[in-house]
Amino acid sequence: MTDDYEYQDRQVELDRERQFRLGEGKISGYCSVFLGALSLLSVLAYLYPAYLTTTELRQVYDAAFLQGLLKYGMYFSLFFGILTFVLKKYRSLGAIGIFLTTIAFAIGGHNVPLKSTEAHHLSLGLDWLILAFLGSVFIFMSLEKLFPKYKNQVILRKGWGLDLAYFCFNHLAISAIIIYANHSASRFHWAVNPDFQASLQSTPALFQLLLVILSADFVLYWEHRLYHEVKLLWPVHAVHHSVEDLDWLAGSRGHFIQVFSERAMVMLPLYLLGVSEQALGLYVTLAALQAVLIHCNLDLPFGFLKYIIVTPQFHHWHHSSERPAIDTNYSAHTILFDWVFKTMHLPGKHWPAKYGTTKPLPNTYLGQTLYPITSQLNKQDQ
């Protein structure tokens, strides 16, 4: 019973050491570093596209247009780096940004010749990493600054570097994830009905999209619930729940076992349904955006939609370590299955006061990767 639970407002103190302030050089320093790093990675991707870019993604974007943007990114990195020296603080950040950009220029810069690329099944998704990072910063970080739930929560909050590492791994490994997911789904080839798939593809794309959303949501609901309620699986999923301050980057934190298994599970209904490319593309886009959105430090008025789709408030309660919220709100897209199976927790206008796990996890990438093993060993020693 949760009727007697006394909900409290979360208090977030402003961390002035991590705060960005105009005129100090910290903003320009980090801009220089990130633009320099992205520029260098972009040049490498243009030099070795067969090994460092994603076959599926190359078919979507205009490489020549992006190379034009790369030129401006490199020059802005130098500009921000020099500005950091002018402001006389955080010069080390400016130096790193200038150094990275100089290397990018030295190995070809924005003048690397474009060339046709043979498809490689396994490659690093540098292009996916770069585009996803820039898109997320532009869309979701902007929304968080305009409509923050917790105004005092800083961009460089505790654990942001660890989550950035997860973000990089999840995007660089996209080819391996896709191969594994496709291979896992193909084992159910015996269940594919070509006539059913052809009939479904003849229906409106929006109907197909709705069917895919509900099918994927059903699978993800139960996969998510098993990670919570099966003791052997929980240490894997606990890595994702170890985040104590949610924002657009926090959703990236996830053990590689869960990342691979989750993609494989959601691929199964997509494979069996065999919807049109248009419906599939819409679903993949919406699912990717929603996965980031629901972790955001964002207080948008969703109105009646909060009772239909998974919103930041709904999913934030899933990440809460408060008693009424533990093991609730498993859904990824709609709240339907949490409502049907009575695992929904959405107490009016209240938001969580505490996030994270009830027991602390290691705060390093290696420590969290090994946590499913070390947690079991620690139990045996007790």
Would you mind describing this structure in some detail?
- The protein is an all-alpha fold and 382 residues long.
- The protein has two domains: 26-123; 160-377, no CATH class.
- It is 58% helix and 0% strand.
- It is built from 17 helices and no strands.
- It has helices at residues 26-47, 49-52, 55-58, 63-87, 91-106, 126-146, 160-172, 174-186, 194-201, 205-229, 234-241, 256-273, 277-293, 312-318, 336-340, 365-369, 371-381.
- Helix 11 crosses helix 17.
- The longest helix is centred in the first third of the chain and has 25 residues, at 63-87.
- The two termini are 32 Å apart.
- The model has no long low-confidence stretch (mean pLDDT 94).
Question: Which descriptors apply to this entry?
Answer:
single chain; 382 residues; mainly alpha; 2 domains; globular; glyceryl-ether monooxygenase activity; Fatty_acid_hydroxylase; transmembrane
Present the secondary structure layout.
Blueprint: H1 26-47, H2 49-52, H3 55-58, H4 63-87, H5 91-106, H6 126-146, H7 160-172, H8 174-186, H9 194-201, H10 205-229, H11 234-241, H12 256-273, H13 277-293, H14 312-318, H15 336-340, H16 365-369, H17 371-381
Helix pairs in contact: 1-4, 1-5, 4-5, 6-7, 8-12, 10-11, 10-12, 10-13, 11-17
Transmembrane segments: 27-49, 69-86, 93-112, 124-143, 164-185, 205-222
InterPro entries: Fatty_acid_hydroxylase, Sterol_desaturase/TMEM195
GO cellular component, one term: endomembrane system
